[in-house]
Amino acid sequence: MALSQRLLIRQGQALVMTPQLMQAIKLLQLSNLDLAAYVEGELESNPLLERAKDEELPAVDTPAQAEADAGTQGPADDIGVGDWLGGELETSREAIEGRLDTSLENVFPDDGAPAAAPTVSGEPAAPSQWAGVGAGGGDGGDYNIESFLCAETTLADHLTAQMALAIADPAQRMIARHLIDLVDEAGYLAGDVADVAEKLGATQGEVEAVLAALQALDPPGICARNLAECLAIQLRERDRYDPAMAALVGRLDLVARRDMAALRRICGVDDEDLADMIGEIRALNPKPGLAFGSTPVQPVVPDVYVRRSHDGAYDVELNNDTLPRVLVSQAYYARVAKSARDEREKIYFSECFQNATWLARALDQRARTILKVASEIVRQQDAFFAHGVRHLRPLNLKTVADAIAMHESTVSRVTANKYMATARGTFELKYFFTAAIAATDGGEAHSAQAVRERVRQLVDAESAQAVLSDDAIVRRLRADGIDIARRTVAKYRDALRIPSSVQRRREKLAAAAT
Q1: 3-state secondary structure string, 103-150?
Q2: Which candidate in 55, 77, 290, 387 could, as Cys together with 73 as Cys, close a disulfide (CB 3.0–4.6 Å)?
Q3: Same domain, residue pair 309 and 234
Q4: Last residue of a domain, one of 291, 326, 358
Q5: What b/e sequence results for 458-491 when a residue is b if at least 16 CB atoms lie within 10 Å of its CB, and e otherwise?
Q6: What letter would DSSP give residue 394?
Q7: Cβ–Cβ under 8 Å, residues 271 and 221
Q8: Exposed e or buried b for every residue in 167-178, given b needs 16+ CB within 10 A?
Q9: 335 with 253, same domain?
Q10: What is the Cα–Cα distance from 304 to 318, expressed in whole angstroms?
Q11: Residue span of the structural domain in which 453 resides
Q12: Which of 406, 430, 454 finishes a domain?
C-alpha cells in the first residue's frame, strides 16, 4: 500500500470551552454566599464594573408640597395656625402671666440649676467646658453603641486567663498555651499528647501534668480527650466519681442502648441506684466549651420563593437579595479608552470591558436558569406542595432537563447549593429529586423520600408493647402498595437515625417506667 499526501477540507462542529463559558458554568453551581464573594472580587479587580444602586426612594415632601397637601384637606381640617393659637400672641412676660393667671416661677419652678450667663447680643451663651462631663453631658457626638458593648470572651481567652494564675513555670505555660490552641469549639483536646510532647521537645509525663492542670480549670470537663473523660472530670468536681459510677462511665455504649440488665451487672447496683446514676450523667454537660464564643450559625437564605396564588397555582419568584447586581460603566470605558497611551493599555481596557460584559450576562443567565429549573420542579411536584411529603413523586434530572430543553449536567449544577422556601419549609432543590420504588400492584411508583417519611410515621406511632421490627414494617408498607425489601427498610431506618426494634423497645419501656 503506497503512502501519499493529500489536502482535504472537512467541516465539523466542536464545543470549545472558552474562558467565558467556563465562567458561566462556574457561576451556575455557586451558592449565593460564594457568588457574592466572587462578585466582590470582580468588583475590586475590574475598574469597569460597578455595583448597581438600589431603586431610588420616594423624595421627601418639601414645605411647599406640605402646604399644598394641607390645602386639600376637608372642612373639618380647615383650621388655620393663627386660629388655634388665638390670633397673634404676645410673647412678653406680662402677657404670658396674664394668660396663665399665675407667675412663671410657678409654672417653671427653679430646680437649682445655674442660669446661663447673659450675653450682650442676646444669643445663648456657649456651653462650658464641663458640659460634656457626666451621664447627661452633651458632647455633641453621635450615640455609639460600641461604647456600651464588651468584646465576646472566647474559650481560649478564658482558659489562658486562668492558666496564668494556675501555672507559674514558664516551660509549663508554653506547653499549656499549645494545648489550649488544640482545644476545639466543644471543649475537647483535638491533638495527641505524644505528638505534643514530641513537637515541643518535652516528656509525655510533663505534658500529662500540664493537661491535668488545665482539666482542673473552669468550666468543668474542659480539655478532655473523649466523652468519658469529660464526664469523669465533672463527676470528680461533684465528688460523685465512685467505683460504680466509674464502671457506668466506662460503658456509655450500654447506656445509649439502654441495656439496663448489663449495666446492673457491671456496676453492681439495683434498679433504683442505676436510675439515679443515669440521671446524674444526664445532668452533666457533654460539650462544656460551647458556652463561650462559638461561631454563630448562619441561617439558610433561600434562592427561590414559592407562594400559592389566589387561583390555586404556585408562583415561583427569585430572591432578589441573593442576586448580585452589577453594571458595566460604558461611559467610563469610553473615556479611558480614548486616553490610552499605548497598545497594551488599549488591550487591558478591552479585556476588562469584555469580562465585565460577560459577567453581567452570566449573572442574568444564571438567574433565568434557576427560575426555569425551579418552576419545572414546582410543576412536577405540585402534589408535595399541596399535600405534603407522602405525595412526593419520583423525579430525576433527565425529566427536568427534557422538559426545559437543557442538559442534565446544567440541571445538576443549578440544583447544587440552592434552596427553595415554601409554605412547608425551606428545602434544597436536590431534595425534590428522589429515586422510584415500584408499587406492588404495578401502578405509579413511589418516591423514596415519601417511603422514608412513611417509615418514620410507622415508628412514631408504635407503642412499647408493639414495637415494629423491620419485617413488620415491610408488611405494613406492602399493604399500602409499596414493594420494598427488608434491607431497604433497614437502610432507610439508619438514614433516619432510628434505632433497632430491640433498642426502641428498651427506650420506650424505660420512658414508661419513669
Answers
A1: CHHHHCCCCCCCCCCCCCCCCCCCCCCCCCCCCCCCCCCCCCHHHHCC
A2: 77
A3: no
A4: 291
A5: bbeebeeeebbebeebbeebeeeebbbeeebbee
A6: P
A7: no
A8: beeeebbebbeb
A9: no
A10: 5
A11: 436-513
A12: 430
d(CA 248, CA 485): 38
Whether residue 464 sits in one domain with residue 357: no
**Rounded-to-integer distance, Cα 246 and Cα 267, Å:** 8
pLDDT given at position 446:
84
- All three cell numbers of 368, joined, read 433565568
Q: How far apart are CA 504 and CA 495, in angstroms?
A: 16
The 10 Å Cβ neighbour count of residue 179 is 23
- Residue 226 pairs with which residues in a beta bridge? none
DSSP letter string, 252-266: HHHHHHT-HHHHHHH
CA–CA separation, 456 vs 249, rounded Å? 31
In a domain, 236, yes or no: yes
Task: Give the distance, in angstroms, between the CA of residue 322 and the centroid of all CA atoms in the same chain.
Answer: 14
379 and 359 assigned to the same domain: yes
DSSP letter for 510, please: H
CA dihedral 415, 420, 424, 425 (to 10 degrees): 100
In a domain, 54, yes or no: no
Query: C-alpha 268: how far from its chain's center?
Result: 47
Are residues 400 and 446 both part of a single domain? no
Going across the sheet that includes 419-422, the strands are: 314-318, 304-308, 419-422, 425-428
201: cell is 521537645
306 phi, psi to nearest 5 deg: -120, 120
3-state helix, strand, coil in the chain (%, to 5): 55, 5, 40
* pTM for the whole structure: 0.61
> pLDDT in tens for each of the 514 residues of the chain?
578 888 889 888 876 777 777 878 888 888 888 898 999 999 899 888 888 875 433 443 433 343 444 444 444 444 343 443 444 445 566 666 665 555 655 544 444 444 444 444 444 444 444 444 444 444 445 555 555 555 677 888 889 999 888 888 888 999 999 999 999 888 999 888 889 888 888 898 999 999 999 999 988 999 999 999 999 999 999 988 999 999 999 988 888 888 888 888 898 888 888 888 988 998 999 999 888 865 566 778 899 999 988 888 899 999 988 888 888 888 888 888 888 788 888 888 888 888 888 888 889 999 999 999 999 999 999 989 988 888 888 999 999 999 999 989 999 999 988 999 999 889 999 999 988 888 877 777 888 888 888 899 898 888 878 888 889 999 988 888 888 889 999 998 988 888 888 888 877 777 776 6
Q: What are phi and psi of 507, to 5 degrees?
A: -65, -40
412 and 330 in a common domain: yes
Domain-located, residue 461 = yes
